[in-house]
Write a structure and sequence with these properties.
The protein is an alpha+beta fold. It has 2 domains: 119 residues, Probable inorganic polyphosphate/atp-NAD kinase, domain 1 (Rossmann fold), CATH 3.40.50; 153 residues, Sandwich (Tumour Suppressor Smad4). It contains 8 helices and 17 strands. The strands form 2 sheets. The chain has a 15-stranded mixed beta sheet that branches. It has a two-stranded antiparallel ribbon with strand order 10-11. Helix 1 crosses helix 5, helix 2 crosses helix 3 and helix 6 packs across helix 7. The protein is globular and about 60 Å long. The relative contact order is 0.16. Bound molecules: magnesium ion. The site of magnesium ion has 8 residues, from loops. Magnesium ion binds next to loops.
Amino acid sequence: MADIYHIIYNPYANRGGSAHYLDAFCTLLDAKNTAYKVYETARRGHATEITRDIIALADGTKYIVIMGGDGTVHEVVNGYRQGDNVVFGILPAGTGNDVASMLKVPVGLENVEAAAANILEKNIRQVDFIAAEHGMQSVLFFSYGIAAAMILEMAKYKKKSKISYYRALLKNIFSFEAGEYDVTADGGDTRRYKVDFCAVHNCIHAGGGMHLISEAVMDDGFAELFIVENRGHFRRILNFISILSKKVHLQPNAQIIKVKNVTITPVTNNLCCVDGENHYIDQLKLSVRHRGISVFHKTPNA
Ligand SMILES: [Mg+2]
């Protein structure tokens, strides 16, 4: 069978604006006489099911193009198991496009052709992902603490805008109660931290473009354990300001540790944000799967 692109398309991404991206991409494929099939997601978790169905098709490498934001990417990655014969491409069409930015895929409707270049030329490389023992997988982060609380707060608002984001931020700066977490990094001693934030990242940006971890590399075999200890409201405000100048890692209550394996056990607050979606997780046993997933990217692995 000739190569075919399986396009997993989230019609709700970018408040429906993703339809324009789909049109633009399909026009490119038509012009090149390239075969494709579009799968539209209809509900939460649907992209995971679609991904499994595509992977289960007859032999050969599957080319899956994700057309949505970070939420759609997260669902698709959770339909994948290491070793499946599949290459993923991303055409960023969502509100949060942190995965695309990590892969240096240009964002914006005017850039669809540039964003599609590596997909059409089939430039492939392998990147890392983070796997949790309970089965969940992430290409961005697992995050306990204030980020998860903000997502929870935002979910209460009917209209989502910059203003509601700042409203949730302000509310959490003053009312978020720091949680306690037992953390074991790479088989070392277990330490208990009282934190505003305790996360494992494999990305520079999170939360729709917030610059958090400059040294994150997507295929270095390590994730970054990022701990921001609680030091009261004033320190919390300074920490948020430091994100704007990309210096949160330099704050006196912040530390970043490169890890391959890490266990985080919440003592007081088990709400965990995974790639932007909230879940209640009593214990996270995470391991980095080095170059465990293939993506369309212009630079091959060294
Ligand atoms: Mg890394």
